[in-house]
Amino acid sequence: MYDVIIVGAGPAGLFAAKEIVEKSKLKVLILDMGRDVDKRKCHMSEFKSCTECSPCNIMCGVGGAGTLSSGLLNLRPDIGGNLHEFVNDEKDAWNLIDHVHKTFLKYGAPKKLYRPTKKEVDALQRKAAAVGVKFIPIPQLHIGSDNAPAVIKKFKADLERKGVKFKVNERVTSIDCEEVTLKNSSKIPSKYILVAPGRSGANWLASEAKRLGIPTRYQPIDIGVRVEVPAVVMDPVIKISQDPKFHIYPDTYDDFVRTFCVNHRGFVVQEVYDDFIGVNGHAMAKKKTDNTNFALLVKIELTEPLEDTTVFGRTLATQVTTLGGGKPLIQRLGDLKSGHRSTWDRLKRGNVTRTLMSVTPGDISMALPHRIVTDIIEALDKLNYVMPGVSSPSTLIYAPEIKFSANRVIINKQFETSCENLFVAGDGAGLSNGLVIAAATGILAAKGILSKEGVEVKT
Ligand SMILES: Cc1cc2nc3c(=O)[nH]c(=O)nc-3n(C[C@H](O)[C@H](O)[C@H](O)COP(=O)(O)OP(=O)(O)OC[C@H]3O[C@@H](n4cnc5c(N)ncnc54)[C@H](O)[C@@H]3O)c2cc1C
User: Fold this and answer.
1) Which end of the chain has the least Cβ crowding within 10 Å, N or C?
2) For 250, what's the count of Cα atoms within 13 Å in the CB-facing half-sphere?
């Protein structure tokens, strides 16, 4: 008999298990539908955005979705989620970030921290502020795709030494307040259940929550484009931050627009969904290009009659794919601004050579709403003051780029759902969007469990 069953061996599940076994004698079992860390072999080029585990296991297995990625730790409480929602004050939020950081270091993450100097941050913030753009400085630690599996392996071995049991290739098909049911219909009882299934289990968790009568709510979605420019345009800013984050409120609609996932000298890549082809970006350690790409995303929040942002996002993305004949659309910014469809000929006249080959030159304004297109054009014009050249007529725009958010499971301050002794954490419950905050919510959910056991816990 276990005291705690954790569904999901991603950062949320691993950090929760660590907190529980280090602070109590509770018996912990972690179940994951993916493979063990050294059985996961995958390439970014195989990355399929999916609700199920892809054959290459990029989303699933011990270590979770980030293990085979570049493992960039954004060490701020408001990036990749918002810890301030869950803790008492600023100090508690930063203490948690520090705790996650130190834990990754303990298991072998590189010590080198990318942190811009105050002088650099001040200069960039001053330039950005002149056009109402906010630059967000973030201390970052790059675990690296080569190191990440070793770090997770050490993490797992330490948990096992402390008594945590792991069962991999075990899909949980249903959860109840006192037991979980596996794919082979066997049931495992437990006093507490912590569900941390990440993106790959988000739809499943949402449907289980519905079945159990646990309230959830839809969250905003990010819809936009991937922008590709000559690397030299962004070199000065990249020297200050590897993945510079800018927040912009364009004049016409005053929507929230942000830069995300900057790939310096990287590639634009396809992201294959069930019903549309999106775009994403990645950078390789050895193979470099002459371009830099980044996502430019507009936050969309919906109220009645359609609150389901996922349905809305999929509808738009499918429309773009339909217009592109089954491929993402590509357009020169100059053509988008002047209302022309881009053609192969027009693309050749620009000074940016595309890095994604499988695209259709087209007119993004035929596929995305006027509001989103206006936001994108105005945001790029503002960014042009910070990074001159970014809104040149030759800049390439790819669509659709889309970031879905899991439904937010409603929890109390202890991370317990309305079903007693059933806790949630991480991306799958809509509580985080990145490695560090997912890990932090795992710790907080563990503290919730410990507090029910009468174990005194400090944040
Ligand atoms: C390719 C890629 C690159 C990324 N790069 C970064 C990055 O550099 N920096 C960053 O901050 N974030 C990055 N992220 C996001 C980051 O990986 C996630 O935010 C983080 O892993 C979420 O942690 P989690 O524990 O909530 O869920 P996950 O890490 O997704 O782990 C959930 C686990 O639950 C398991 N599971 C799901 N459903 C079930 C079920 N029914 N039964 C049993 N097991 C189940 C899954 O197999 C999975 O292993 C990346 C994501 C991807 C896909």
Assistant:
1) N
2) 22
Residue nearest to atom 35 of ligand 1 (CA): 8
Tell me whether residue 120 is in a domain. no
- Expressed in angstroms and rounded, the spacing between residue 208 Cα and the centre of ligand 1 is 19
Peptide bond connecting 400 to the previous residue in cis, omega within 30 degrees of 0: yes
Residues 243 and 183 in one domain: no
Domain shared by 56 and 184, yes or no? yes
pLDDT band, residue 52 (cuts 50/70/90) = very low
- 416: which strand partners? 423
Report d(CA 202, CA 66) in Å as an integer: 16
Residue 449 near residue 4 (C-beta atoms within 8 A)? yes
Query: What is the C-alpha to C-alpha distance for residues 203 and 343, in angstroms, rounded to an integer?
Result: 39
62 plus 185 within the same structural domain:
yes
The number of distinct structural domains making up the chain is 2
Q: For 369, which DSSP code?
A: -
Do 77 and 41 fall within a single domain?
Answer: yes
pLDDT at 42: 57
- What is the 52 CA–ligand 1 centroid distance (Å)? 12
Percent of the chain with pLDDT over 90: 81
Q: Which two tokens stand for residue 225?
A: 């484009």
Instruction: Give one word for 36, left, alpha or beta, with left for phi > 0 and alpha for psi -120 to 50.
Output: beta
295 and 414 share one domain = no
Question: Is the pLDDT score of 443 beyond 90?
Answer: yes
Using DSSP, state whether 316 is helix, strand or coil. Answer: helix
End-to-end CA distance of the chain: give it in Å, rounded.
29
Of 177, 210, 142, 193, nearest in space to 30 by CA: 193
Residues 357 and 422 in one domain: no
The residue range of the domain holding 48 is: 2-109+147-217+407-452
The residues lining ligand 1, judged by C-beta closer than 6 Å to any ligand atom, are: 7-13, 31-34, 47, 58-61, 64-66, 69-72, 74, 80, 171-172, 196-201, 204, 426-428, 432-436, 438
